[in-house]
Structure formats: C-alpha cells, structure tokens
Amino acid sequence: MTEEQLQHNAPRGGLTVPKKYRKKPVVIEAVQFNGRNSADIHEFCGDKVREPVGKDYLEIETLEGIHIASPGDYIIKGIKGEFYPCKPDIFELTYEPV
Predict the structure, then answer these.
(1) Strand 49-50's sheet: what is its strand order?
(2) pTM
(3) Which of 4, 7, 55, 91 is the most buried (most CB within 10 A)?
(4) Which has the closest alpha carbon to 63: 50, 81, 75, 46?
(5) Model confidence over 50-60: pLDDT tens digits?
C-alpha cells in the first residue's frame, strides 16, 4: 500500500473512515412468493420453509434464524445454499434476470 493509501485509511479521531465496496457479480436463484405458490416455495427450499396454518406468510429458516416471507417477497438461494426472503423493491434494485 502506498503512503497515501495508508493515510486515507488511517483512523481519524479514533474512528475508522468508511470505505466504499462494490458487490461482486453473483448469479442467484430466486422464486417470488405470491401467496398462492407455497408448493413451489416448498419444492425450492425443502425443509427450510414452514407454512403456519391460517396465515398468509411463510417462515423461512435462514442462517440468522426464522424470517417471515410475505406475499410479493422473493425467496433467494444464496451462494452457500442458504435461503432468505427479500423485499421486492430491494430485490429489483439488486438483481436482474440472466
């Protein structure tokens, strides 16, 4: 690292200066939950999804615990095979069809 880079990344007043990062291009698989396609979600996620009786949402077992997937949310299979829900606005800003 150059002296300039070291100075740029050095803590200022005890705080580390945030750096910018770009997300690596990764291809993922996803299915959008529409409230009526829970069988498709079960096929996609296997035993990582639960459908509470009488509810209009799904429970997805993620690496961080149980997350709720509401109609409209996308269920994403991550790069390590994990599943998690994603709100449609975030999904559409982050991903595009390949």
Answers:
(1) 49-50, 58-62, 65-69
(2) 0.79
(3) 91
(4) 81
(5) 999 999 999 99
